[in-house]
Design brief:
heterodimer; A: 321 residues; B: 527 residues; alpha+beta; eleven-stranded mixed sheet; four-stranded antiparallel sheet; globular
Chain lengths: 321, 527
């Protein structure tokens, strides 16, 4: 176990280095023009001003040099400055935005895990019942429906028609005082993010449980008169959960991607909107830092999944086939 | 047993949902009466006037030396009276009001004005305004004659220079010796304006509060909260739910608020035109008769009535005060005649042909803009009626920059202030050698157009300049590469209880901008 964790942590710098290089190369290949983004669309800018802006921000340097400078600063713990967002240090930008994103993604993840587990288990237990059909129907609909559409629908229904929940920002826009997060402001974006991400989770739980329920040892237990729920909770679920844990780890990256649109519709001040603006403006320091940050998240998610896998599955733990 | 267990679980879930839903709605704090929440379509990147769009102007944290009144006449703002221009046009002297203080209590002096303008001129500061104002060629020196007087020495006469003095003045004592382009000041500005910057929660809100020591009558609304909602449907939803008080919307979405007694819908006249710039490299469009025929064949009034829901006017040229372009009739028959004279005859497929080639071109539009998409489609169907085959494609801006010339594009341009601030860059042939795709995007090479622009730039006499701009309008129509379609009215939804709203003609803008907010410090809010 220790060797696994240590090994992963040792390869982390390699993964991050590769990701950083890839991000630089992709930004270089992209057709987006950072100077155009700096002055704004449909704003005329003469050649001399272009040159000066490029020079002032170091955008006129060849890419390897930009990369080397960036690395040099990174070693000193400096993530650089964003040229798009008024020259702010990238570290501050990320620290400003990360808590809101982690809160949103964490809540959505919790909803996905709990909701998917409950709905999937019930659907498997009452296979082909109306509830099973409901869960499967909703999941398939969910995969087909674009997330911004679901978000607008939820905003319309719960904010306007029913007036139950607010739909903008982390707290009442009229409120004064220190920044805070109101629970009621979290509910809509977290639920919509969870709803748009839960489908294949729920279906996965249901299908895996059904498979496990067909296994010989389950039939054996049933033939010995063991009750349905006891089989489910004692035997089927723990076995089905093993791959489920892995998926949850990998799912972190999906959530991160899904949160971009949700954040911009609900005015949630997280990393999503920052990433979108940085990508459109080819704000390399921000882009690379966010990509690296999310790579760390994904690597951590995978590592947790592997560790969880070992704890749950004795075959893996003991190195058995 | 099994179905009852399911029922119990579902009931528990329902109770949980209800508990969440019934939880306290919105907290009605005392602040509500005193706060106006405004939704912008995008978050500013910086609040420093050195990096902001010249036309935005709805951040009332700063004042410029001059400002515009309701009818767009130049009036003194930080200046004690309008700037004095020397007879040769090379020296502009500004005397400052003696009673102005920055929000931190420091008095405004000529040093602050000198610092601001030297920063704009400094290439290392990388202000986009340096290029837009052509400062490298215009401004030779700016210096303080005494603590209340500033003198600008110009390298050439510039009839628009006093309009450029609209840029907000920043405090020297907070920025001197700092890296202006990345200083914290860009996020936490200190100005002289009617509103004081309070806080910026990135991605969520910017809060301004009344300046109790403003040098004029202070604002009536104590607190302004700006939030950022990119999606226009989401903006409409937040207006309806009451979380947001004011926002700009496309005409069709705004129409839904006209019979809602909680709101008033305001139309802001603008110089913001939608123009199809025709492909300059298309050999078939080189013939001016073909371009004239295209202009006669588009039904501009139908575009205003249908696509803009009436919120606009037909456009025949750039908006220039005192030099309106002559109207172009909608006359498809004359268009067909002109095309026949140019040698094009109807083919078997209904489209015009010459030497076995069809009269066709491609018109792009930025895919994210629904109004431009509909305008492009209207151009396509109007032209199809006279036998011209226009293919329409929605793409991203970066594709537009690459394909411009080989294809046309639907642009949005126009500003109501001094024409010199924009038109030279859009039309003058000297910019063809420039790398930037947006300088002279139609690749015009017209001696008449160049001559009119140069005459207008070279003169300080308003009458001579107007005559030059009238020649420019005629030359642009004779050339026909710039197919002006419509001029928008920007539509803004405001609370019904808001009074003293007075609109001002504005330029190309997005959402809630200068045209409605220019006198926001005079607004009163009764709920």
């Amino acid at each position: 176990m220790i060797r696994l964790v240590a090994g992963r942590l040792l390869t982390l710098p390699l993964v991050l280095g590769a990701v950083a290089v890839m991000t630089f190369l992709m930004a270089a290949a992209s057709p987006f023009d950072p100077i155009r983004a700096y002055v704004g669309a449909e704003t005329v800018v003469d050649q001399e001003t272009r040159d000066h802006i490029a020079q002032a921000w170091g955008l006129d340097r060849p890419l390897p040099e930009q990369m080397a400078r960036w690395l040099g600063r990174l070693v000193q713990g400096d993530l650089g400055r964003s040229h798009l967002f008024g020259g702010q240090p990238v570290r501050d930008l990320l620290l400003d935005r990360a808590p809101a994103s982690l809160l949103l993604m964490g809540s959505a993840m919790a909803l996905v895990l709990v909701g998917g587990l409950v709905a999937g288990t019930l659907a498997a237990a009452f296979r082909d019942s109306w509830f099973d059909w409901l869960v499967r129907g909703a999941s398939h609909l969910n995969i087909a429906a674009p997330s911004f559409w679901v978000a607008l629908l939820a905003l319309y229904l719960f904010s306007i028609e029913l007036g139950w929940l607010p739909g903008a920002g982390m707290s009442d826009l009229r409120s004064t005082g220190a920044p805070r997060v109101d629970l009621e402001h979290l509910i809509l974006p977290a639920s919509v993010l969870a709803v748009t991400q839960h489908a294949w989770f729920t279906l996965y739980v249901r299908n895996t449980l059904l498979e496990v329920l067909r296994e010989d040892y389950v039939r054996y237990a049933r033939s010995h008169g063991m009750g349905r729920w006891r089989i489910m909770f004692r035997h089927a679920l723990p076995n089905a959960l093993i791959p489920f844990v892995t998926l949850a780890g990998v799912h972190v990256s999906e959530l991160l991607g899904g949160s971009v649109l949700i954040e911009s519709i609900f005015g949630w001040p997280g990393l999503g909107t920052l990433v979108r603006d940085a990508a459109l403006g080819v704000d390399l320091p921000v882009l690379v830092a966010v990509t690296l940050g999310s790579s760390v998240l994904v690597v951590a998610g995978n590592l947790l999944a592997d560790v969880g896998y070992r704890l749950l599955d004795p075959r893996v733990r003991e190195g058995l086939p | 047993m099994s179905t009852s267990a399911l029922r119990v679980l579902l009931a528990a879930a329902a109770v949980l949902l209800l508990a969440v839903a019934c939880g306290d709605g919105r907290s009605d704090g005392g602040a509500e009466q005193e706060t106006l929440v405004i939704a912008l379509p995008s978050e500013p990147e910086s609040l420093s006037p050195i990096y902001m769009d010249f036309y935005a102007g709805n951040w009332k944290v700063f004042n410029g030396l001059v400002d515009y009144d309701a009818n767009l006449n130049l009036v003194p703002d930080l200046a004690a009276e309008l700037p004095q221009v020397s007879p040769d046009g090379r020296t502009v002297t500004v005397r400052l009001r003696p009673d102005v203080r920055f929000h931190d209590g420091t008095p405004l002096t000529a040093d602050d004005v000198v610092f601001t303008w030297q920063a704009l001129l400094d290439p290392q500061v990388a202000s986009p305004l340096r290029g837009r104002f052509d400062l490298a060629n215009v401004l030779r020196e700016v210096r303080a004659l005494d603590p209340q007087t500033v003198e600008f020495s110009l390298a050439r006469t510039d009839p628009a220079f006093i309009h450029k003095l609209y840029v907000g003045i920043v405090p020297r004592h907070l920025l001197a010796g700092k890296d202006v382009k990345s200083d914290r000041f860009n996020q936490e500005p200190v100005g002289t304006g009617p509103y004081v910057f309070r806080e910026w929660r990135p991605g969520e809100r910017i809060v301004l509060e009344r300046n109790p020591d403003y040098f004029r009558e202070g604002p009536r609304i104590p607190r302004l909260v700006y939030t950022f909602v990119e999606d226009e449907n989401a903006r409409a939803a937040l207006l309806r739910s009451g979380e947001v008080d004011a926002a700009g919307l496309p005409p069709r979405l705004a129409a839904g608020f006209r019979d809602d007694s909680r709101f008033q819908v305001v139309e802001v006249p603008s110089a913001d035109a939608r123009v199809a710039v025709l492909p300059s490299e298309d050999p078939d469009l080189q013939d001016p008769r073909v371009r004239r025929a295209i202009s006669l064949a588009v039904n501009r009034q139908a575009m205003v009535d249908g696509i803009l829901s009436g919120a606009g006017e037909p456009a025949y040229g750039p908006f220039i005060r005192g030099a309106a372009p002559p109207a172009i009739p909608y006359d498809p028959d004359q268009a067909r005649d002109l095309l026949r004279q140019a040698g094009w005859t109807p083919g078997s497929d209904g489209f015009l042909q010459r030497d076995g080639r069809r009269l066709a071109f491609t018109l792009l539009y930025p895919a994210s803009d629904s109004v431009r998409k509909e305008l492009a489609l209207a151009v396509r169907s109007d032209l199809a009626a006279v036998g011209v085959d226009a293919t329409v494609e929605g793409v991203g801006w970066d594709v537009i920059y690459q394909r411009l010339g080989e294809a046309g594009n639907v642009f949005g341009w126009g500003q109501p202030y001094d024409p010199e601030l924009e038109l030279w860059d859009l039309f003058h042939s000297s910019l063809n050698e420039d790398d930037d795709p947006l300088t002279n995007p139609g690749h015009l090479r017209s001696r008449e157009i160049d001559g009119a622009l140069e005459a207008a730039r070279g003169s300080l006499d308003p009458q001579q300049r107007q005559a030059a701009y009238r020649r420019l309008q005629e030359a642009l129509q004779a050339d026909g590469t710039w197919l002006y379609l419509v001029q928008l009215r920007h539509v803004v939804v405001l609370p019904a209880g808001l009074t003293n709203v007075q609109v001002q003609t504005e330029g190309h803008a997005h959402g809630f901008s200068r045209g409605v907010a220019w006198n926001i410090e005079r607004w009163e809010l009764r709920r």
